[in-house]
Amino acid sequence: MKIRSTTILSVRRDGRVALGGDGQVSMGDTIAKADAVKIRRLEAASGHGVLVGFAGSAADAFALMEHFEAKLKESPGNVKRAAIEMAKLWRTDRMLRRLGSLLAVADAQATLLVSGQGDVIEPTDGVIAIGSGGPYATAAARALIDNSDLSAEQIVREGLRIAGEICVYTNTNITVETL
């Protein structure tokens, strides 16, 4: 599945996690909107914050976020468990299986990529990106981690800015949330 039309980046550094996204919505080769917000802060039943970003169809992503939020309520404080249960449901449910989106999920302990293929991936280095500009944002974030003292939020902003200058499906109208 090739997800285009956005970039979501999450970076974990110095006990903080930041998740951000660009604002571009593309329809084919046309920019339909430049200031969309593709990240959300959810409150888990345990009272801990959870950040979610999505790449792909917005309607599909909102449906998936609702299911993920329900799984969070069933497993308070355990984002990994909720993500695994969500991925299982996504892969096995006939209707959900058709939804075309990817989720990037982060809380104080874990950063995860969740896909409809049943994937729940936790990056070794705390950096994860999805969407068409994801590889550019990942490369920029890793270089900044290795060569600067920037905070997680600053690295996300700069990584997304760099991706927005390279990827035609990504812009530099950036929204970032931190935990």
Taking strands numbered 1, 2, ... along the chain, how are they ordered across the largest sheet?
5-6-7-8-9
- Extract low-pLDDT stretches: none
Domain module count:
1
Q: Could you tell me the radius of gyration in angstroms?
A: 15 Å
Order of helices and strands: EEEEEEHHEEEEHHE
Q: How many beta-strand elements?
A: 11
CATH topology (level 3) name:
Glutamine Phosphoribosylpyrophosphate, subunit 1, domain 1
Terminal Cα span? 30 Å
The top level CATH class name: Alpha Beta
Compute the number of helices: 4
Classified in CATH, the superfamily is Aminohydrolase, N-terminal nucleophile (Ntn) domain
Shape: globular
What would you say this structure looks like, in words?
The protein has one domain: Aminohydrolase, N-terminal nucleophile (Ntn) domain (Glutamine Phosphoribosylpyrophosphate, subunit 1, domain 1), CATH 3.60.20.10. It starts with 6 loop residues before the first strand and ends with a strand. α3 crosses α4. A hairpin with a 5-residue loop joins β8 and β9. With 179 residues, the protein is an alpha+beta fold.
Please tag this protein with its features.
single chain; 179 residues; alpha+beta; Glutamine Phosphoribosylpyrophosphate, subunit 1, domain 1; five-stranded antiparallel beta sheet; four-stranded antiparallel beta sheet; 4 helices; 11 strands; globular
